[in-house]
Amino acid sequence: MTHTTNNGRALVLFSGGQDSTTCLAWALHHFSHVETIGFHYGQRHAIELEMRPHLLAKIRHLQSEWNGRLGEDHMIDLGLISQLSHTAMTEDIAIQMQANGLPNTFVPGRNLMFMLTAATLAYRRNLSVLVGGMCETDFSGYPDCRDDSMKALQVAINLGLDTRMRLETPLMWIDKAGTWNLAEKLGGEALVNLIREDTHTCYLGQRGQLHEWGYGCGTCPACELRAKGYLAYRGQKK
């Protein structure tokens, strides 16, 4: 993919999953300096945090330009989230729908807190763009993944910090097949294979079996969505 970088400085919300890894590649394609931020919030699938440093090291070697653009990684403890929430993402309980129509994998306020924390760090680090993997096309009904939520948050951040930060969500309007396709456009088969083998998405934190689409239990909503998207992506290539 032809590089179209500008002189912007970006901070990517990087969990170690498929979406955030694709977003990191997107940011490295578009901006001259990119830093990453991750959060420990007592998540049940904390294996993703163990994958982050390995992913970052490998991403540096995918393209020489990326190595020069990829800056510091920041890990923030947001354990407060698990103290405030009772969800299947933070406790060993079955994944199911709730009376309010949302799955109990929804962690109230999580993405809002992530973005606000990232904005605070970006302010100190002189980074003007925040990049997140929120998506309205293939999502579980999480209200804090919606485009309107991100746009409203951008306004609030800029009013509260007296800045002109921009929130970028490159996956907002594409499905999971499109996310795999974007990864290929950005980094070729090397990035696709890296995402398959080294990222983590499974809500249950399982990495025992490598499926065609990656590691995971294969039955939780995150695994099902990732697998369905990968099969559709491969089908488009035939």
From TrEMBL:
Cofactor remark from the record: Binds 1 zinc ion per subunit.
InterPro entries associated with the record: QueC, Rossmann-like_a/b/a_fold
Pfam families: QueC
Molecular function as annotated in GO: ATP binding; ligase activity, forming carbon-nitrogen bonds; zinc ion binding
Cofactor requirements of the protein: Zn(2+)
GO biological process, one term: tRNA queuosine(34) biosynthetic process
Biological pathway: Purine metabolism; 7-cyano-7-deazaguanine biosynthesis
Keywords, in A-Z order: ATP-binding, Ligase, Metal-binding, Nucleotide-binding, Queuosine biosynthesis, Zinc
Domain of life: Bacteria
Record-listed ATP binding positions: 14-24
Catalytic activities: 7-carboxy-7-carbaguanine + NH4(+) + 2 ATP = 7-cyano-7-carbaguanine + 2 AMP + 2 diphosphate + 2 H(+)
Positions bound to Zn(2+): 202, 217, 220, 223
EC number from the UniProt entry: 6.3.4.20
PANTHER family to which the protein is assigned, alphabetical: 7-CYANO-7-DEAZAGUANINE SYNTHASE
Family: Belongs to the QueC family.
Its biological purpose: Catalyzes the ATP-dependent conversion of 7-carboxy-7-deazaguanine (CDG) to 7-cyano-7-deazaguanine (preQ(0)).
Protein name: 7-cyano-7-deazaguanine synthase
Protein encoded by which gene: queC
